[in-house]
Amino acid sequence: MTEATALIHDMATRARAAARLLARADTATKAQALTAAAAAIRADTDLICAANARDMALAEAGGLSPAMLDRLKLTPERVAATADGVAAVAALADPVGGVIDQAVRPNGLVLSRVRVPLGVVGIIYESRPNVTADAAALSVMAGNAAILRGGSEATGSNRAIHAAFIRGLAEAGLPEDAAQLVPTTDRAAVGAMLSAHGLIDIIVPRGGKGLVARVQAEARVPVLAHLDGINHTYIDGAANREMAEAIAVNAKMRRTGICGATETLLIDRAYPAAAALVAALADTGCELRGDAEVQALADVRAAVEEDWDTEYLDAVLSIAMVDGVDGALAHIARHASHHTDAIITGDAATAERFLAEVDSAIVMWNASTQFADGGEFGLGAEIGISTGRLHARGPVALEGLTTYKWLVRGTGQTRP
Amino acid sequence: MTEATALIHDMATRARAAARLLARADTATKAQALTAAAAAIRADTDLICAANARDMALAEAGGLSPAMLDRLKLTPERVAATADGVAAVAALADPVGGVIDQAVRPNGLVLSRVRVPLGVVGIIYESRPNVTADAAALSVMAGNAAILRGGSEATGSNRAIHAAFIRGLAEAGLPEDAAQLVPTTDRAAVGAMLSAHGLIDIIVPRGGKGLVARVQAEARVPVLAHLDGINHTYIDGAANREMAEAIAVNAKMRRTGICGATETLLIDRAYPAAAALVAALADTGCELRGDAEVQALADVRAAVEEDWDTEYLDAVLSIAMVDGVDGALAHIARHASHHTDAIITGDAATAERFLAEVDSAIVMWNASTQFADGGEFGLGAEIGISTGRLHARGPVALEGLTTYKWLVRGTGQTRP
């Protein structure tokens, strides 16, 4: 057993013991712990910011990119927002103990499926220190123990936030081992987490494509992850013109760097105002890449084959003309990443066909793909958006961090 | 790309196309296909039995064990039972299209989560040829395409059953690619299935521990599997004596080779009739292995540490004395395989504590662990019993072969 494996084994064993206690904690106790954790984070604002300033100085000296530095940076406002996020999780509905369904068998056995925590959740993330608190709060509220492994550049910030968080757990009488921070920046610890089959129940990677791809490639533990959000908005021939333009612009440009942003616009050849739509998008300053027909409508760069499979996460949009909903469905089946796809149309039958046939975690009608978000979906938060097909799909919050068990209550039945 | 990889890639691509059609098939069409498949299997009884006779002759010449030969053997009665099984699946409630939950957001967006098929299911099994029809029927009824890889000793039998099955699909206008049989017995094809990430959505191994362990160790595709059923029945001090004896005997001895059989009996030191209980079990001819206290009650062999972690699947039972429900919970936490565990007690508070705290897929009160079965649970069938924690737990039938997607219906909403 390597040092990293031994470390993770020990942490996971303590996490399992803590998870057993947490699984029995009632909603009020978990909420109290998170409220106390939020207060502790607020109280430690100066300490956390000071630790972050040291991380920032090292990171700047180490030549971290401005974008990464911005993710790493904490201000008193950002610390307050982190604390607010933890307090908000305390107010969410607790899925644990909920009865999914119940049945009485002809022999009198009473069956019920009840929600129980998953167990031990491993979270592997990058430079944002707020994930330490966010992910721990969601895990604990769903009755799980969390093993947190943040980016090495955020070590001091993460330790300071974690120290405050576990004070909150202790105040409510919950075990501090319910939220453990991996104490080493040794990358072997990540490998040990990914191979901790039977010790860690699920791994949630939170970060860029490189991290998620590594986790998915190496993990022996189930992973809750999304890799790409190559999202499509399809403008049907029966779309309302104003709505089409407003949604297309919002879906692409509101925030270009989030996974719910539209990356490809599909326009029905029967849509009468294609040129105006393309012009409206061009007016936003977005770089447009079109197929030959789109190029005939406006002065846009030619899209190459690779464009249809690219998540730009930037002010770039590929545009293709298609033959109605069939053309859109064919394009989406070939190129979508199964995250979020939308149709804009006034024709309900066409919309229902699109909703039924697009095989993505989220399918929308007359709405912006930018709504693909746990908060917007009313989940109160999200630990991630899953593009996998198993267990949980789309935005995942507390329910996705639980599983169920079958309870069978009898009166002495034996099986014939 | 190796030959096996290319083969599986081609089969999975055709399966994906078939799955897309199947996902849209209505319940009546799927039921009609299975009814026709059942009729085709019945009509082909002679052909299937003749193919099986050739498989049996080769297997006997090859020295297959009597137990394996019995699993391989088909008779007209067994073929009829297989056909009946397929027809029974046609009558099950179709989960596809079911609405899990629905909500209207303050901005007017209407959200719903609806059940959709998983996609492409890979089934890897051993000598029982009936799995060809059982697994294909469950997959198709849940809207999935199946890729079936049976044991090499059953090649002819599987081909004959498969040929009948797909005639049924074709009669209902469903694509034959919805149930494909891997045409080679090359073991590399199994490896190619296990690594077909993104092509096959889930692998279901159906067979002995060796197969399941190999699948779990090698698979890059999610696996729905159970490895061990090290099940406990705990006789509490407050158990009714007659009930305790009847259930203990049934839980161990009704059928010793199934995964729901009890393997370890835990007896509360406060239970007043322990000696009679042990004697009742000894009377059945079961080999008993006890700790020192149990040995003091009856003439039984000494249990060694390994016994507490062994799934005998035979007429062997390990017995330990414990200190009440706390002792039982501690023993189970240490040794259970998270399959099925039961408490026998007249004390409701003790029972509820056991139900809440035992972390297994199925937890029972005053019932025999032998009820751990999809049919007994009212699921109508089962593709397996999952001891994993994610996606589906315990007996898995149609619902476990589905996932969900989020549908969002708007009226032009853009995200602020």
Strand content of chain A: 15-25%
Mean pLDDT of chain A: 95
What is the name of the CATH class of the largest domain in chain A? Alpha Beta
Radius of gyration of chain A: 24 Å
State the distance separating the first and last CA atoms of chain A: 48 Å
CATH-level-2 architecture of the largest domain in chain A:
3-Layer(aba) Sandwich
Report the strand count of chain A. Answer: 16
Largest interface: A-B, 61 and 61 residues
| Biggest β-sheet strands, sense, barrel of chain A | 7 strands, parallel
Give the topology string of chain A: H per helix, E per strand.
HHHHHEEEHEHEHEHEHEHEHEEHEHEEEE
Helix content of chain A: 40-55%
Order of neighbouring strands in the sheet with most strands of chain A: 10-9-11-8-7-12-13
Low-confidence stretches of chain A: none
CATH topology of the largest domain in chain A: Aldehyde Dehydrogenase, Chain A, domain 1
Secondary structural class of chain A:
alpha/beta
For this structure, the quaternary state is homodimer
| Fourth-level CATH superfamily of the largest domain in chain A | Aldehyde Dehydrogenase, Chain A, domain 1
So how many helices of chain A? 14
Global outline of chain A: globular
Number of domains of chain A: 2
